[in-house]
Specification:
Layout: H1 3-10, E1 22-26, E2 29-33, H2 34-46, E3 57-60, H3 70-86, E4 89-91, H4 98-104, E5 113-116, E6 130-133, H5 136-145, E7 147-151, E8 155-161, H6 170-181, E9 190-195, H7 196-199, H8 203-210, E10 220-222, H9 227-237, E11 254-259, E12 266-268, E13 276-278, E14 289-292, H10 294-297, H11 300-310, E15 320-323, H12 328-336, H13 339-346, E16 349-350, E17 371-374, E18 388-391, H14 394-403, E19 442-450, H15 457-460, H16 488-491, E20 497-500, H17 512-520, E21 524-527, H18 532-540, E22 545-547, H19 552-555, E23 563-567, E24 572-575, E25 580-583, H20 589-596
Helix pairs in contact: 2-3, 2-5, 6-8, 11-13, 11-14
Length: 602
Amino acid sequence: MNIIEKILASHSNQSVVKANDIIDVFIDARAARDFGGANVVKNIIDNGLTVADASKTCFTFDCNPGGSDQKYAANQQYCRMFARENDIAIYDVDAGIGTHIAIDKGLAYPGSTFVSTDSHANIMGAIGCFGQGMGDQDIAAAWAKGSVWFKVPESVKINFKGECPSNVSAKDIALNLLNTFGANKLLGYSVEIYGEAIEKLSLDERITIASMATEMGAIILMFTPNDAILDELAQKSGIRHKAVKADTDALYANSFELDMSKFVPMVANPGHPHDDISVENVKKTKIDSAFIGSCTNGRMEDLRIAAQILKGRKVAPGVVLKIVPSTDTIWNQALEEGLIKIFKDAGAMVSNAGCAGCAAGQVGQNGPGEVTISSGNRNFEGKQGKGFVYLASPATVAASAVSGYITTADDLAVQPALFMKKGNTKPADSKKDIVKTEKKTEVEGRVWFIKKDDIDTDMIYHNRYLTITDIKEMGQYTFDNLKGYEDFAKKAKTGDIIVTTKNFGAGSSRQQAVDCFTSLGIQCIIAESYGAIYERNAINAAMPILTYKTGVMEAVDLKDGDTIRVNFISGQLTNLRNMKTAQLNEFYDAQLKIYQNGGLLG
């Protein structure tokens, strides 16, 4: 078996598991954040459930440290009250990012399993742990039952040859991987990473690379911890664990060899983490703001690199540099090492530990037209505001902040570029009442044929609405961040069907990106493929979703506005305009059972 198969087998009371097996997986650590946490509690209470093991359960308030948003504050307090009654640990607004806390405190460890409402819970691959971001119902099920169902993914292997260039950071490695594989070539795979250069990577560097598995569409990027990593983890947690290693005869769906010596410093263009180019191609692009932090680049090594560049220099006039350490422990260490003083002397704003702008609950947001260079992992359009976000390494961000434009540490500006102001926009508003549909296995409806790959969850249901827990209110915001479909909620009719292409629902673990379609009465969604978390969320919420192979829609000559008939059990698709038929991938047994049960928690 390979790594993920070994871990899942050991947590499912089975000696052997293989790709595509559907198993119940015991979860060692079960977390809910301030985003999603209130819905987890609501699911527990509304379904009359109890917490199976409080010692393995916790809240992590990392999206909005301080509860600066009233609805976040209300959700946090709601979770605190539940935690007090059920003896559940809380890593509150002063603690930092939950996944990092789990690594540093040993809640997650090599060979263990970890789930959270954080879509970047697969960051645990950095330490050879199986971590997954899941939706509210999945986490509620894990809290109540101690285990969740999971389909064992296929695995691929990436072997790196060559030495890593001295100017290429871990973030650059991740961006080079995104440039090679895009957002969906690794979709649904567990990816094992090997090579001499990989063995030399520190824990912080491995965390940076593993944190961007979600942006690649992968289930997880899995590293095998070496002795140095195991020693560091033992020093943090007090317990030394053994690494899970793949068997020499393990099976893989594919393998790739990449020459790391050819990697260069990269940036991701605004809108898509996988739209990556060399920094050289965008040098001198004027910026308004810069950000260093997130679960990808808020570790001590990242802050030290930034401090080396910022020491004795000033942030360019008018540019705002925001720095957010990933945990309070790292914040305090930065204070002891004098890094906080360097940042403040340079003119940066240093905030308390947390997720920052990625979660829309802290510093890191930008305004209309604002150009930001960020060390985060996501730059989906509209996710961090109405501006434009480039992704880069902490070194490139710090160099750009003092230069006033995008550049590298070895090419700082002699005179910093000047700031230019931008304009404003106003979001639209609409409303639609919820309509419930019967649990039918064959439906007919009008088609919305959306021919766009990689429609992410921020396009489907923007993070500014995440505090909403009432499904009746969600429909009005559907697709209001997807270009060309901003008025979708006003035009959609009960019984409509959505047909789209690859990697629908990429990105966040938010359940609302499924529930908003239920709110509008959408009958089913058909896509060539789905983001891994989104697929689970839809199945668990009894939203009918199906997949198809390339060429199917051409075979039935599907056009926007056609009426189609879809059978969930047989998979037959019929275009009623021309009576042409084609075959979709029908519901698998577990999906059908959950659907007929009215959802995972039904």
